[in-house]
Amino acid sequence: IVLYILHKSMFRSSSRWNLSGMTALVTGGTRGIGHAVVEELAELGATVYTCSRNEEALNKCLQEWSVKGLKVNGCVCDVSSTPQRVKLIENVSSAFHGKLNILINNAGTNIRKPTINYTAEEYAHLFGTNFESGYHICQLAHPLLKASEVGSIVFISSVAGLVHLSTSSIYAATKGAMNQLTRDLACEWAKDNIRVNGVAPWYIKTSSVEYVIFLNPAYQFHTITKRISENWRSH
């Protein structure tokens, strides 16, 4: 879905599935959805920059991508930190000579518990990681996206931002805010030739949610196919 949005917004049909010469930033690209998006963009010819707060995981992924011949670079960054977000975009600007075609705001986290049990610190951490990070990175990256003359932003949201779930109310609120930000930026930045879209998946079988699916097998019955989506790249 992410790649379809990018191609539909950036290319005519004759050049679809070719990102040669394009640059991309994917936050949280060392596992799950982010990892799959990094690989897909790079295999389609884009030069990709990614980040992770886990240096060991980042170095391992960068080495694997290098062996595959993919053009991927990255740095350690905790997107919940304002100074680290600033440094991330400085690195991206330097790597891509002040221009950026694609921004995938993917990094996110969740703390599952009843609403009355959240602490102020947990609330701040969820909003800082899931919402504020994407908002601020968009602000910082706007000059780079505008300079490319063909810019596209994709927010990785969640079904939780659209419907009621029994837990994770703060997570759901961050995704709801993200969805509204997506709409507003799409209108505000269209004049700069920057398209803004969001993708809101249901549960996908990744390392971060496998235990949740195991404990709540009924989640699979909320989908038309009665199964949880999987990362085809893992097979």
From TrEMBL:
GO molecular function: oxidoreductase activity, acting on the CH-OH group of donors, NAD or NADP as acceptor
InterPro entries found in the cross-reference section: NAD(P)-bd_dom_sf (IPR036291), Sc_DH/Rdtase_CS (IPR020904), SDR_fam (IPR002347), TR (IPR045000)
Alphabetical keyword list: NADP, Oxidoreductase
Protein family according to the UniProt entry: Belongs to the short-chain dehydrogenases/reductases (SDR) family.
Name listed for the protein in its UniProt record: Uncharacterized protein
Organism whose genome encodes this protein: Solanum verrucosum
Upper lineage: Eukaryota, Viridiplantae, Streptophyta, Embryophyta, Tracheophyta
